[in-house]
Amino acid sequence: MPRTKSRKLEITQEQMDVIRDYANTFNTDSGRRVLEDLRQSFCGSCFVKGYPSETAYRCGLRDAVVKIGEMLKISELPVDVVEELTSEI
Description:
The protein has 4 helices and 2 strands. By secondary structure, it is mostly helical. It has one domain. α1 (13-26) crosses α3 and α2 runs antiparallel to α3 (52-75). The radius of gyration is 16 Å and the shape is flat.
């Protein structure tokens, strides 16, 4: 299978503001405690044998917590690195 081309992610000022909001919310003592609680509550196994709807529900909860973690990682990057991020299309 041929490789796909990379493209630069275009991060708007509004998106950067939201990324900073995540950091301001979760990079506090209480925010870190809440995030750890969310991870413990929702980042285990999503699969529930015989219950596809419950599996999907649990995966959705997990995805929300994963997104918070991703936003925090992006917020820690220098601005020039954020501008250079690429994504496979």
